[in-house]
Predict the 3D structure of the following.
Amino acid sequence: MEALAGGIATIIERGDEVLLPSPNYSSHIEQILFAEGQPVFVPALEDRGWRLDIEGFKAAITPRTKAILLCSPMNPTGAVFSEQELRALAEIALDRNLFVIADEAYDFLVYDNLPHFSLASLPELKKNLMATYSFSKIYCMTGWRVGYMYASARIIDQVLKVHDAFNICAPTISQYAALAALRQTAGRHSAGRQFIRDLVAALAARRETICRRLDHLSRIFSYQKPQGAYYIFPKIRLEGLNSMDLAIRLLQEAKVITIPGSGFGPTGEGHIRLSFGGTEQQINAAFDRLDHWAHRQAGD
Ligand SMILES: Cc1ncc(COP(=O)(O)O)c(C=O)c1O
């Protein structure tokens, strides 16, 4: 989070525009606004599994455009962008000399053996690229606050000034914990690598559970199956309820926390985000409550 904020604060001047696929992680929007930049949303193509609209990106570029920011797998949709899509985006960025900020927090968390393509693997993009990585998800170290940025020395030298002003360094104890995580996961056959494979397999099973449970609520939601991360972003099929209204009603009446889609940019309205990061038991308990709530709405 801090690498993203520091990277954005380094390159964005007041009024600079940053293109984002929408819906997108709400903190990206806040970080751009904090740097006095202007988020410009390029709606993703929901009917096609929330794919990138490459032509939309081209059309959204103005003389004030400074950067493109995206993550893959995507929070909140779980979309994983293909090599072809990402190469097309990189080409646009190089053509217009834009920075590319690639949030790689979920790079390890892709289902169905789909390949994960990273913009950081394109040597020609390196001079324009900031890629950010997190220990939070892959090593389940969310509260330890450790992550890092990969970029050229030219960029890192500038970001370090902002990093110093924001928080100087990651906590020492967390750095030791991160070192332990790296050591434990060294080598394909290490215990740590097996832990990560097990984690991905467990989350893949939970994805099936949440999709199965959502299928039983098809009167209320339709959805695109996520390809990565641990979120699903169903469309609300109930008339006259916006995402905030529904999220509050689900919280108060069903005692289930969801995130209103409006928090993920304008394209997010009409949806809610659900996480399947919890245990199977927690997911099933939440859906038992949602089923109950849905029956009450229908007067069954
Ligand atoms: C896309 C994305 N980027 C960044 C973060 C924050 O990462 P960290 O815990 O490393 O600050 C999250 C956390 O949910 C996320 O979903």
Q: What stands out?
A: The pocket of pyridoxal-5'-phosphate is lined by residues 1, 25, 71, 75, 103, 105, 134, 136, 142, 147 (CB under 6 Å). The first helix runs from residue 2 to 11. The mean pLDDT is 97.
